[in-house]
Amino acid sequence: MEVVNRNGVEPFITKDSSQIREILAPANSSIKNQSLAEARVLPGTSTDEHFHPKAEEIYYVLEGRGSIKIEDEVREVGPGDGIAILHGKRHKIWNSGQSDLVFLCCCSPAYSHDDTVIVE
Fold this sequence. Notes:
Strand order of the largest sheet: 1-2-3-10-5-8
Order of helices and strands: EEEEEEEEEEE
Number of helices: 0
């Protein structure tokens, strides 16, 4: 059995400029085909618009408010919202609130800087 607590994982900045903590990923567990991370976007900031040629993602918003753009569609998001992002789809999320926008990010296959293409 593997249990990894997010408090024991060091955060890092991804290629799209978000701060994440990989809770379960190939680098720190026996998981090979996916990853689970907590992402954080500070008030007034955003990720860089990007896409993943291989990975599909699920975002699940825990705290804060923001907007997500997938291709040319923009929606407001907040706690309890799940967002499906298919591979190859350009996307960007920004924080429009006064506190951190915090969400879980599940990637399959696992997140990789090599599978992130910045488009802006």
